[in-house]
């Protein structure tokens, strides 16, 4: 889960991070499932877009965000079960419609190409087949290394 916290214009916000911040281990997937992202807490300068990942030590005490800053937290989740490229494209589409994954995640992780021009997110089956073949080829090439 990603969360962005930003103060109201003209105000500052003291932010406290509960939990273990960046010390949680990366969760692995099983039976071909992918792992999750490593957790992090970052301070973002909204004028420049520069992102600074905060250290565990920096997270031990509250810090203040100015009105031109935001805090991005990436929380850990469990790893996946089963090869995402074998998932039923219709289930991926449903997860996209229900805001559980983005169309980009549908493409990049599950290899499912959706028509984002409509709210129905229709599946392009031919493009999905090509995308999945490309992702499988990349996965094979990376496992040879």
Describe this structure in words.
By secondary structure, the chain is of the alpha+beta class. It folds into 2 domains: 2-74, no CATH class; 84-144, no CATH class. The chain is 24% helix and 17% strand. The protein is built from 3 helices and 6 strands. The protein has helices at residues 89-97, 103-108, 125-144; strands spanning 2-5, 13-15, 40-45, 51-53, 63-65, 69-74. The strands form 2 sheets. A 4-stranded antiparallel sheet has the order 1-6-3-4, with no helix packed on it. Strand 3 (40-45) and strand 4 (51-53) form a beta hairpin. The two termini are 31 Å apart. The mean pLDDT is 85.
**Gap from first CA to last CA:** 31 Å
Mean pLDDT: 85
Compute the number of helices: 3
How many discrete structural domains? Answer: 2
Poorly predicted tracts of residues: none
Give, in order, the helices and strands.
EEEEEEHHH
Strand content: 15-25%
Please give the share of residues in helix: 10-25%
């Amino acid at each position: 889960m990603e969360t962005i916290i930003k103060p109201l214009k003209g105000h500052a916000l003291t932010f406290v991070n509960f939990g273990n911040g960046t010390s949680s281990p990366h969760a692995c997937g099983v039976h071909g499932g992918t792992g999750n992202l490593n957790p992090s807490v970052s301070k973002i300068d909204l004028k420049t877009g520069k992102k600074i990942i905060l250290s565990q030590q920096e997270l031990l005490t509250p810090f203040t965000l100015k009105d031109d800053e935001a805090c991005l937290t990436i929380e850990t989740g469990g790893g996946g079960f089963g090869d995402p490229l074998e998932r039923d494209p219709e289930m991926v589409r449903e997860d996209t419609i229900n805001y559980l994954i983005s169309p980009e995640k549908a493409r990049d992780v599950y290899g499912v190409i959706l028509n984002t021009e409509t709210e129905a997110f229709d599946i392009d089956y031919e493009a999905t087949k090509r995308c999945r073949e490309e992702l499988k080829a990349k996965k094979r090439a990376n496992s040879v290394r």
